């Protein structure tokens, strides 16, 4: 998300614009539900939406020296869009920890302490390329349609019966849009984005004290 653009959009009185959450959901869904295998090659730190992109992939390979971080709450924001891709894979407890603490999680920790986060961790760029190439070779040896069907089957079974999964999907999208809309019109977000643009770290104690006046 472009925080500067978001703040400019909020101050523009030209009329209602298409919700950015719709475009973001379409992009992440296109990757998540792509019938072909998707590999995330993580060679540097993944922050915010970058973490969401990693969780949209079927196979996730990272260098050992990278880290993952959801820092949105430091700016009065919520990782609303990407939450629907992260929570099912790491579970509610881990997701709360990742989103509420905003602390960085190293690749090694993500692999060993966070089931459902990463597939493999390697040392250095050459090893990363080799690991990606090895998975590509393995996947090319399998039937494309069978892999696509297996991927779809996992998506459905991960949410229960097909009908129930469809209902839950619709409900999840509704909650994501609700949280995103509330977040982008909140005083917290306005303050957090303003401090970000001013290159200052938000002082939330000061913000809370002033908001009570």
From TrEMBL:
CDD domains: crotonase-like. It comes from the Eukaryota. Pfam families: ECH_1. SUPFAM superfamilies: ClpP/crotonase. Belongs to the enoyl-CoA hydratase/isomerase family. This is ClpP/crotonase-like domain-containing protein.
């Amino acid at each position: 998300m472009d925080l500067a653009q978001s703040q400019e959009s909020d101050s523009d009185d030209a009329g209602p614009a298409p919700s950015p959450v719709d475009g973001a959901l379409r992009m992440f869904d296109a990757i998540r539900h792509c019938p072909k295998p998707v590999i995330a090659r993580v060679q540097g730190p993944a922050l915010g939406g970058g973490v969401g992109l990693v969780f949209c992939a079927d196979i996730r390979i990272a260098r050992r020296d990278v880290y993952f971080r959801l820092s949105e709450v430091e700016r009065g924001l919520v990782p609303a869009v990407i939450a629907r891709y992260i929570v099912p894979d790491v579970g509610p407890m881990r997701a709360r920890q990742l989103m509420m603490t905003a602390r960085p999680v190293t690749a090694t920790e993500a692999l060993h302490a966070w089931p459902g986060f990463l597939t493999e961790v390697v040392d250095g760029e050459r090893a990363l390329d080799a690991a990606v190439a090895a998975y590509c070779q393995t996947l090319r040896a399998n039937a494309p349609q069978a892999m696509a069907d297996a991927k779809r089957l996992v998506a459905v079974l991960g949410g229960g019966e097909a009908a129930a999964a469809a209902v839950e999907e619709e409900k999840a999208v509704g909650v994501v849009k609700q949280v995103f809309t509330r977040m982008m019109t909140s005083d917290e977000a306005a303050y957090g984005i303003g401090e970000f643009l001013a290159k200052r770290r938000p002082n939330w104690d000061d913000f809370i004290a002033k908001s009570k006046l």
